[in-house]
Amino acid sequence: MLSGRGLTKRFGGLVAVREVDIDIPRGEIFGLIGPNGAGKSTLFRLIAGIMPPSAGEVRFDGKPITKQSPSAICIAGVVATHQIVKPFRAMSVVENVMIGAFFGRRPQPRGRKNARAVALEALRACDLAERADSPAKELNLSGQKRLEIARALATDPEVILLDEVLAGLNPTETDRTLDLIRAIRERGVTIVMVEHNLRAVRGLCSRLAVLVEGRKIAEGNPDEVLADQRVIDAYLGTATHA
Amino acid sequence: MAKAIATAVVLLVLIVVPFAAPNAEYALDVLFLIFLYGAMSSGWNLVGGFAGQVSFGHAAFLGIGAYTTAIGLKAGMPLVVAIVLSGVLAALYSLLIGLPCFRLRGPYFSIATIGIGEATRLIALNWTSLTGGASGLTLGGAPPIVPQYFGALALCAAAVGASYWIKISRLGYALAAVRADTDAAETLGVNTTIAKTQALVISAFILGLAGSVYAQHYLFISPDSVFGFSTSISLVIMPIIGGVGTIAGPVIGAVIYTFIREQLEANFQNLDLLAFGLLLIAIVLFEPKGLLGAFDRFVRRRRPAAAPGASGG
Fold first, then answer.
1. Which of A125, A156, A187 is the last residue of a domain?
2. Structural domain count, chain A
3. What does the pLDDT read at residue B164?
């Protein structure tokens, strides 16, 4: 459903992502893993339209979305969260989420009342309903990460792209977020997540792709992929690609 | 509710004033100026406040409105047509410059608007066949103050009303999101370019109408008066004094601005820019949210029970 062909991103002489082909089927929790600097976040940004690729193409439901703005991609049904949380700090929590409700995939709710209702539903799903009217800047990191997810949910997406939502969370918060991701999957939303936490990824993802030095070196179900010698080498530092 | 009642009372009083004191020419003149500046300041605030895109070139729209009315009236155009055309041409012009300028962000956008404002002034200065160049345009007649008073009051009320309507609308949410974080707004489906352009076009329309009112009042316009950089600066100063991004702030700023300017013009000519510069520095340093922000803080201090209770997230 969401696919990339020959995705490449160069920054001057550095090739961050090199000719990656990727296919994300509907209904998966798709994990994108790799050591630091492997180009995961860059690939993520190419798919989300936050950054244009130097070469290659992204398609969603067969239609190319490569040259579209992030807002157009969101309206098409693919929404991204930010690794470094970007709450609208001056607004309340529910107003943050109302932005997603007002402007996400069509049909959009008409009027503030409808937008607020959609937003509150997303906040309930993310365990933030009782903080709805607090200023967004008063949430702690875990809360702000869930706010990112709630805003994304309120856009009524077909695909949510999560960029390291677990980073910086303690074990309790991590488990809570994993449950949340599973619940979103139960709504029929496809999930693509860039993640560092291999333990979490193994239990959660139905499919994994491994990126090393900008190349995709393995893809498949988590147990197979994580047992792959090339993946182990890459993570343990005895990379043969250097 | 209290705010709505207060607004209605103020509006009612202002409507009654010219009937109660038809001969108080000076007072009516000052109120006229407050309405005119209030409308201009509210118009600027849609882009500079709501969307957070600080423009230093808004005099361009005022000037286009003023020149459209002056040229139109001289050519024998009916007044209503000239007024509407003033707003429409300013709005069209804003569309033309919004498209390239909104590709820029933050300070780069602001710098580009300075260029646009100055370029527009130079066009007006040198297109002598249309604008009369540096010697400006003079209109005949001496219209009575009362109809102008009501014209400016209506424009100011409309500008404030439009601000309120935009603030609670879908567009208002888009602009607030753009102001807070343009990238995050984009990823949530907000077409930030369209949102900013919509705000700019409405803003320019209001400035264009204000330019028309200006031309009808002063009966003389020149590139330096309506297109001048100091006019653009005053449009930034007023909302900042009152409270940028709020609904009442720009009008409150216009009241303060008008009074200070009237005093300075009468007693210390040419000191106004110095005075406003100092005032601006003081506000940005001590109360960036302007007088409304200071007022809010004062109210909150007297009612500490209303403090929000923050617990773990």
1. A156
2. 2
3. 96
CA distances from A229 to A118, A137, A217 (A): 46, 44, 11
pLDDT tens digits along B200-238: 999 999 999 999 999 999 999 999 999 999 899 999 999
pLDDT tens per residue across span B15-42: 988 888 888 888 999 999 999 999 999 9
Examine the domain organization and report whether A163 and A145 are in the same domain: no
A166 and A68 within one domain: yes
Q: How far apart (Å, rounded) are the C-alpha atoms in residues A165 and B71?
A: 61
A134 neighbourhood in chain B, CB within 8 Å: 308, 310
Statement to judge: residues A144 and A164 lie in one domain = no
Report pTM. 0.90
ipTM score of complex: 0.89
Q: Quick one: CA dihedral A24, A29, A35, A41, positive or negative?
A: positive
Query: Are β-strands A55-60 and A63-64 bridged in parallel, bridged antiparallel, or unpaired?
Result: antiparallel
Cα gap B213→B155, rounded to integer Å: 9
Distance (Å) from the alpha carbon of B191 to chain A's nearest alpha carbon: 5
Does A122 lie in the same domain as A132? yes
Which residue, of A130, A156, A182, is where some domain finishes? Answer: A156
Contact B177 A48 (CB under 8 A): no
Residue to mutate among A102, A137, A145, with most B CBs inside 10 A, is A102
What range does the domain containing A58 cover? 1-77+158-242
Instruction: Please tell me the distance in Å from B175's CA to the nearest CA on chain A.
Output: 10
Report yes or no: B70 and B221 within 8 Å, Cβ to Cβ.
yes
For residue A82, tell me if it sits in a domain. Answer: no
Chain B: give the shortest CA distance to residue A200, in Å.
22
